[in-house]
Amino acid sequence: MQAATLLPGINWEAAVIAARAAVLHAEANGWRINVAVVDRSGNLMSFLRMPGAFLHSIDIAIDKAYTAASFGFSTKDWMSHIGHDDGMKFGFSARPRLVVFGGGLPIPAGGDWIGGIGVSGASEAEDEACARAGLAAIQCEPRERPD
């Protein structure tokens, strides 16, 4: 019997550091956000909600992280990766938990990715800036979709 291959995943310490850094970036700019960090399998590893952040943004942040971890590229780039295939655009976009606007980034490691970070509550660009701050805190650079 062959041994199961385990997906690489972010550890809890890095997940907490990334979430905290995203919140600190938002706080410094006067934004109120929710931030979620998930492992490569989409399991929630860390979550923070700032007082006054939109309640609906709780699930949106979690789903942005889940989407980024699922595909390995940013949520804002999702539609461009699908191209002009309307069937895929409509089919995938109807899927629960799939978010196709900015604020979710994969967490890269060694040429692969080990999870996702999702931020919601500010503008799309501000959410992504907070997610990038989270990645910077754990010394990760955002990357494009793997080939």
Q: How do the strands and helices of this protein lay out in sequence?
A:
Blueprint: H1 12-29, E1 34-39, E2 44-49, H2 56-71, H3 78-82, H4 86-93, E3 104-109, E4 112-120, H5 124-137
Antiparallel strand pairs: 1-2, 1-4, 3-4
Helix pairs in contact: 1-5
Lateral strand order in the biggest sheet: 2-1-4-3
Number of strands: 4
Alpha-carbon distance between the termini?
31 Å
CATH level-3 fold name: Beta-Lactamase
Q: What would you report as the Rg, rounded to the nearest angstrom?
A: 15 Å
CATH class: Alpha Beta
Protein model, in words:
The protein is of the alpha+beta class. The chain has a single domain, classed as Beta-Lactamase. Helix content is 41%, strand content 18%. Strands 2-1-4-3 form a 4-stranded antiparallel sheet. α1 (12-29) packs across α5. The radius of gyration is 15 Å and the shape is globular. The mean pLDDT is 89.
